[in-house]
Amino acid sequence: MASHTAIILQALLLFLGAWLAALLPRADSTLLRAWSRRWDRLANHRWLAIGLTALVSVTASTIFLLSQGWPVPRVHDEFSYLLAADTYARGRCANPTPPHWEHFETPHVLMQPTYASKYLPMQGLLLAAGQVLTGRPAVGAVLGLALACAATCWMLQAWLPPRWALLGGILTAVNPEMAKWWGGTYWGGAPGLLGGALVLGAFRRLLARPHWGQGIVLGVGWGILAASRPFEGLVVSLPVAVVLVVRWLRWPGPMARAAALYVALPVAAVLAITLAGVAFLNACVTGSPWRLPYLEYERQYAAVPLFLVQPLPPRPDVRHAILRNFQQLWIDDYHRQRTRLGLVQMPLTKGFLMWLFYVMPALTVPWLALPWTLRDPWVRVALAVAALLWVAIGLTTFFNPHYFSPAVGLFFYLEVRCLRQLRLCRFQGRPAGRFLARLVVVVYLVTALPQLTSPLVSTRLSAWAQARAEVQRRLEALGGRHLVLVHYGPGHHPFDEWVYNGADFATAPILWARSISPERDAALQAAYADRMCWRLAADAQPPALTPCPPP
User: Fold this and answer.
1) Residue 258 vs residue 99, higher pLDDT
2) Which residues pair with 222 in a beta bridge?
3) How many Å apart are CA 205 and CA 203, to the nearest integer?
């Protein structure tokens, strides 16, 4: 999330700029007039504007990676996405369950009936593309975010005049938190943004006239959402589908038939292909085309429901203490959110986290002009869809800012629409709003660079992730193949999970395994006798790695 320094700096610059706007409302007119004309010429070349947005996104993510190095996975989800990427890069949908699989159980990963990530495939496919093309899954995250930002610019071109659509695309691409978390880690967010932007952009174009190309784009957008964030994507897509159908029913007969022919058929074809692919993946992972890996994992391991309105399910029988402690964290959080205090506090907390991630002080100022934009029906539509998604997210037990990703395009539409309105504000009869609107953009862009060169968050997770990466580098430097038996102390935090592996156990240089008991550890060591065995005391400072005695 945004640092305190960035928030204070933005607030200070905005205060000074607002003061100057009141005193010198025309100070920027001559300076920026020529630049504004060049901006308009660039924005009118629509594909050039889309390409520029993608380039800016790649640059922002690259600045972060150059300052911090290649990302080290820090949270459970990242390891699971990397497993999916490694699986897809090897041309498989799932992997066979390894021998003594109980030693390799870990959050967000299925071990039965196959060894696979629980997540839907889109983020794993992006990371797999980076792994195949360059050997670095992070490259797939960077390119995926660039594609999503370019799609957002394309979407905004249907909602705004060209110059403002390009501005919205650039603001999206420069957003420091998106560049760092979605382009500089393996956690995801870009697939939801990409799918939502394609759906919302095709939606506005199809309201004007039916076209088979836009029908395909709409189907692709819905397919991406179905394969990445199906719940949030459904919340955004339902109003779109309803409005389109109502509009088409009001068209005269020939146009209605054209809508059915040029839109409904392409959408149905693309969705059929997408759903067939998801069903095939389901069958490979869970043995049933109708059962998602996510739901299979929930059946085996989940101790809390997906929505706060659901009761607690029967607690599954989990073999390892650290996994039981991980379950207990979410049970405590579930109960805390359902208390009277939680029902008030948690929506405010989630809203504050969203503000830190997407808005910050610089982009807060234009929203003061929101009441004057409500005469625009499309502003009301965008607000209604975004609010609907926000309410739906409020019902979920879990929360992260990327859950809102399918509607991020609408957020930047509203942001730019408010900026346009802010330009019209006057102070004592003078056009102070124009200077203030430009100031907001300049402050946002200027403060983005120091944020892009700062680390994500300096927490226990960062220290633990670096410790794990250092042990891995030490073992790789020794050469050969290794088996690491991980021992946890009684107070070990369940978020600091060492036991994650790639898709291929036979060729992996290092296998991380969970210590269970002396007898079962000896059996595991015998099963992997071709590997050098190590014992890792994970809670020692620093973590202690010692050779295992023979079984």
Assistant:
1) 99
2) none
3) 6
Residue 84 CA: distances (Å) to CA of 12, 120, 121: 44, 9, 7
Torsion angles phi and psi, residue 286, rounded to 5: -105, -10
Token duo for residue 513 = 């395994």
Contacts of 392 (CB under 8 A, 6+ apart): 231, 232, 235
The DSSP call for residue 538 is T
**What stretches of 158-301 adopt beta strand conformation (E)?**
none
d(CA 513, CA 494): 15
Structure tokens at 501: 């592996």
Which stretch of DSSP H or E encloses residue 510? Answer: strand 510-514
Q: Which amino acid is at 524?
A: L
Using one digit for the tens of pLDDT, what is the confidence trace for 286-305?
999 999 999 999 999 999 99
How far does the chain reach from its first CA to its final CA, in angstroms?
47
Query: How far lies 370's CA from each of 23, 156, 171, 427, 445, in Å?
Result: 24, 18, 18, 18, 22
Tell me which amino acid residue 34 is: A
- Which pair of structure tokens corresponds to residue 414? 């509203």
**pLDDT for residue 199:** 97
| Interval 413-451: pLDDT, tens | 999 999 999 888 776 666 667 778 888 888 888 888 888
Task: Write b or e for each residue in 203-231: b if 16 or more Cβ atoms lie within 10 A of its Cβ, otherwise e.
Answer: bbbbeeebbeebbbbbbbbbbbbbbbbbb
| Amino acid at site 289 | P
| Residue 60: per-residue pLDDT | 95
